[in-house]
Amino acid sequence: MNFEWSTNDIATMTVTIYETNLTLNKAACVHFEDVNYVLLGIDREARQIGIKPVTKQEIDENIYPKSQLHRISLGKSYGRISNKSFVLDLSEEFGLDFSKQQCYKLKATYDIVHTMMIIQL
Description:
Layout (H helix, E strand, L loop, with lengths): L13 E4 L3 E5 H4 L7 E7 L4 E7 L1 H5 L9 E2 L1 E2 L3 E5 L1 H11 L9 E8 L4 E5 L1
Antiparallel strand pairs: 1-2, 1-8, 2-7, 3-4, 3-5, 4-9, 6-7, 8-9
């Protein structure tokens, strides 16, 4: 027997890039349940996006400049980070064309050591 076992899409962390926001599926939201803000970053060489949760304590201690904080809104089945300029940077850097494709759905992993979600483009 040569079964190929199917993956559970519900348990797979997915980030969907729309023209105006990043949307995280329920599995991806688990890492952001206790925060209201995140950092967004781009690693151009590795072609990766990083989403790092920022705790209330880190905000209170002014560890990150307020200009770098992005609000994350969590619903029952998804999370959303609205930032049109960040998505524009992504589209210019990595050739995302929203006139040809409404969204880009990408798998994500969570780096426990660096406490950040990594999305490979």
